[in-house]
Structures are given as C-alpha cells and as structure tokens.
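Human: If only I could read backbone structure tokens as easily as an amino acid sequence. Underneath my words sits a plain record pairing an amino acid chain with its backbone structure tokens. Take your time, and here it is.
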Amino acid sequence: MTTDLTAALTDLAQASAPPSSIDAARARAAGRRRMRLRKAAWTSGIITVALAATLTPAALMIPVDPSPAASDPPAVDRSRSPLVSRVEFGWLPSYFGAVSYNEGYHGVFADARGTEPTGHVGEFGLMPTVVLSAYPRGTEPTPDRLVNESLDLPTPNPPRWHQVPAPAVNKRPAYWVTEDAADPLNGGDIHLRWQVARDQWVEIHAYYLPDDAPKQEVVLRIAAAARVGDRAVPMPFYITGMPAGFELDEANLLRRPFLPGGPPWSAGLLYFVPGTTYTLGIGVSPTAPQEPSRGKTCWTVDAFDLCITAVNGVPPALDAIGGLEGLRSRITILGSDDRNWTTDVLR
C-alpha cells in the first residue's frame, strides 16, 4: 500500500488540473507543497488526516454565533486526551460532509472535505477542501510561510507570498495571502488570514471549490462562523496503562475512507522514544483488507482492526508488559457509535 499510495500521490501532485478556473500550474505547485507537508504522515501507514468525532454533517450546516475575540477555554487534561482541537467549523456549505482533525508534527488543523469531486486526476477525485488552523496565541504570522508549513520540510523555490487586504471578519483585520497580488483568490488555491483577538490569528486554506460557487463569499462566511478554543476530541478506543518513555508526536481521527474501498473511519496515535529511532503507531478502524507494511502487526477484535506499527523494532519500553501483544491487551475498542467514544483515552 505504501508504494502504491506514494506513486499515486506523486501522480496527483504532478498531473494537470482538469478544466476549471483554477490555474493548472499553480494548482500543481500547491499540490506538491501540500504533499510535502503531509507525505510522511500519508506514507507511514500509521497516521492519516484526522476527522472530528463529535461533529455530524447535519450539525455543520447550522450557523453559529461566533465570538470575535479569543478567550481562555476550560483547561484540557493533555495527559488523558491526546487529540485536542484548536478550532471548530461553525458553518459549511451543503456540499461539505466530512470534517477532520489533526494535531501534531504535521500541523494542528480542522480539515473539511466535500462529498463530490469537482474534477479527477486518474482515480483520485479533486474534492472541495477547507483547512482551518489557528496560530498559537501570541504568535504573529510570518509573511513568507503558511501556518502548517514545516521548517523541517523546506519547499524548493518557495513562492513569494503577498498580503492583499480582505473584508473584515467579525469587524477584525483580515487579508488574503496570494502568489499574485492582482489575484487575491490565488487562482482558486485560496488563503485567508484574520485576527480573532489582539494576540491570535486564524488561517483558512481552501481549494477545489466548485466553479459555480461564490468563492470569496463562501470563504468569508466560513471564517466568520469559525470558533477558536481548545477542545478534547473523543476517540473510538482507550489505552489502560500506556508505558512510560513514549512521547506523542501525532494524533488524528478520520471519519471517511482514506482511499476508495477503505474503512469508513480510522483513528491513530503516533509515538516516538526521545533520543532513539524507535516509533510506535497505534491504529484502529473497522475491519478492512490490510496491506503489509514494515513493522506492522494487526489483530482482528470483533469487527475492528487494531494495528500496532513499530518501524524500527519493538521499543524496549514495551518489554516489561509483554511487547506488542502486551500493549494490544491494554487497548479497548469502543465500537463505531461515536456516542460511546471517549476523551479519556490514556488511563
């Protein structure tokens, strides 16, 4: 799966865009940037793009009354809740139906996907996408980088970004980030940045929106309804007695198939052992055919797959509990009904 997925994503990033108002060359360049930002996560077989557990498509269609200022939300116990959302969608157009959350090395964001593609490259549909991210409070955006761009994954020949004034969002300053100062919507690869409080900024990245949609109005309305504040995201499993010595690198929850024919949802945690090359991935999903992957061991538990991936060998920290089998015995799967999922993941 890893080899096939890598090749497919490479083809997608290098292919010409279908006929649309999106500039083809710019779309290819943006696709390469997006692939570089998430390539390690996509190809690991451990972590995929995350999806919120508690927001249903019906709930997402209800506009909310957003607060124009950030406030200190109730504290989240990070020792027990590994996946924490910094942002929430308050409104999305009806053609969106899936919302993802990711927290970790590859960014902290909510990722909404459309239900129907606006075009195709091979077998891959070009799905309308909106990525919502909040900068940490007290962090000023830099002119030459986007919110989830990693300093460890440099972009060859990076674009020169321009800041173009945008209509105020909830009476607060906003601007478009674009490669062409004469084109605020950046050829359909749209970036909007706005201030929610004196010390915090939020950013939207939207692409593959339908050509017949009023794109500027759609993005501004999504921005106006967005909410900012930490919230623990429920997950479909919990771990009793995770051994010491591991540090969390990534957490996510995906409630759509990652690839055609894949399970309808999946959840994952990715750990590393500081000072070593050991990594440990834990993934849960409804049962589906599993492709072999280096270091990956899977069990079928009722109607679910539980996979643990130790790419560079089993970390010695697991020896005291019986290795991978011992860790497996400490993981409880809560089923597919998200009403039974929990934020108390690490016990």
Remarks:
- The first helix runs from residue 2 to 14.
- The chain is about 15% helix and 30% strand.
- The longest strand covers residues 96-104.
